[in-house]
Amino acid sequence: xxxxxxxxxxxxxxxxxxxxxxxxxxxxxxRRVATPQNDYPATVAAVAALVxxxxxxxxxxxxxxIGTPGAISPATGLMKNCNSTCLNGxxxxxxxxxxxxxxxxxxxxxxxxxLSEATDGAAAGADTVFGVIxxxxxxxxxxxxxxxxxxANAIAGEWGHSPLPYFQFxxxxxxxxxxxxxxxxxxxxxHPWPSRRELDAAPACYCGKKSCIETWLSGPALAADHVRYxxxxxxxxxxxxLAQAGYGPCSASLARYEERLARALAGVINLxxxxxxxxxxxxxxxxxxxxxxxxxxxxxVFSDRVVTKLVPPQYGDSSGVRGAAWLWSGVVAD
Length: 334
Hints:
334 residues; alpha/beta; Nucleotidyltransferase, domain 5
C-alpha cells in the first residue's frame, strides 16, 4: 500500500525546511534546521535526521520529495548547477536513498514552486505554469498539465542563466525615440539597446558567464544596480519600500528592475506561452510588480494580446516545500 503521508523538504543554502502533508494535502508538521555550510556529508545527515525525527513523532513513514538549488545531470546522476556548491558533482539522490532506505524524488526548487501553485495554489487548474524564484538567486521551473517538465538536460525553465536584453531609461525630453511611458513612474522608455553604462557594468555570474538574468534580477542585483546609479547601499526590500513611498532614486531603481523583469518574462511567454507565471522568493513580495510588469511586457510579446497572468504564490515562502511533497503526485516528465 502506498504511503498516505508526504514529506516535502526544501534544501536551501541557509536552512533545510520540512513539512508533512496528509492524504488530503493538509499540513500536519513543519520543522526547520540550519543548513551545514560547505559540508556535504553533514547536509545528507541533516536531511535524514529530519525525516527520522518526523516519522518517529507521527508514527508512520511517508514518501519523500526534495527541492534542491540545482538539478541531477541525466548524463552522470550527479548534482549540477547548485549555488550551494558543495552539492555539485555529488550523488545526492543515491546517497539519500541509501541513508533513508527508500526512493526519493528530487526537483529544482523553482519546479517545486510551480508544482505547488499548479496543484492547489494560485495557478490551480492552469494548463501551463511557469514558476519564478526571485531571491538571492533567480530560477525558473515549468509545470505542464500537472507534470514537472525537466527536459533532456534537466534544465527546463532555467531562464536565470540566459543573457538579459537591456533597456534604457530617460526623461521625456530625451532626443531619442520613445516607445512609451513606464506605467508606474511616467518615464519615457527608449529603444531596447544597451547603454554604455550597462555594457560596462555587465555583472559576472557565479556560473562563469556575464550578464545572466540572475545578475540583474536577484535581490543583490537590485541593490547593486541602485548603487551603480548613485543610490545608497540598501538591501532590496528597503529599496522597494522607499520606492513605494515615493523616494525618487529608489523609485527609479525599481522602475529599471520592472522593465528588465518584463523583458525577461516576455521571452518566457514567447517560448512556452504559460497560462500563469507565479513569482516566488523575497522579491515576490513587491506588490507593485503584479500591476506594472504585465503592463510593460505586451510590447515585447509576439501576440496581439497577452492573457498570461502574473500572480504571487498562494502559499508564500512555504510553496516550494509543499511542491517538494507533491512530487509524488506530479510526475517529472522529460
